[in-house]
Amino acid sequence: MLSDMAGVFISFEGIEGSGKSTQVALLAEALRRQGGAVVVTREPGGTALGQVLRRLLLEPAGAPLAPKAELLLMLADRAQHVQEVIAPALQKGSIVISDRFVDSTTAYQGYGRGIALELLAQLNHFTSGGYLPALTLLLDLPAAEGLRRARQRRGEAAGLDPFERESLEFHERVRRGFLEVARANPMRIYIIDATRPREEIHQEIVTIVRSKGLEGSSSTAS
Ligand code: TMP
Prior knowledge:
globular
């Protein structure tokens, strides 16, 4: 955590179809109702450069991306995102809610693609500039259920992105990666059972945010 950080940084993580985006929106709305200045953002794609990178990553025109190329594009997205959006908003005292952050790189590029975890830890630190969420909400559900939901949401007509097209085994490795990172960081990462109704999940998240004293824009992350 950086000492110049006046705001509150919260991230959401989870496999495809875990309902992150819905829960991000519900939490942002709840915090805004309490008067908080909330910035909602995401990775990849939280900046203008990031949107170009997101298209390259999720709609590759030619051959599938090499795992190392995929990793470096994700990291370029993060470096720009931290400098342009996250750091300035935190320095202004806002509550920043990011749909994915460093743990996605560990889970997808590490556990999913097999890139060395020690290298990813260094690169995550390098690109995040030391900014780490005070709280990470990991929406957990079985990979088969997540994939079913994600594919259903897309519908048959719209094509699946390269991650949604990955095998069930890939997504099971990614889920295991998230759970292992969560168990190694129990003070920061809360595992939420995402198979429950969305309102119940939201209430649990609000309770956690309150219990950590993070609901006010004046709170200082510790
Ligand atoms: P989204 O579907 O949550 O918007 O995320 C897009 C995809 O990007 C998702 O399949 C996970 C993937 N991703 C990584 O593989 N590594 C990362 O570091 C991030 C931020 C996302």
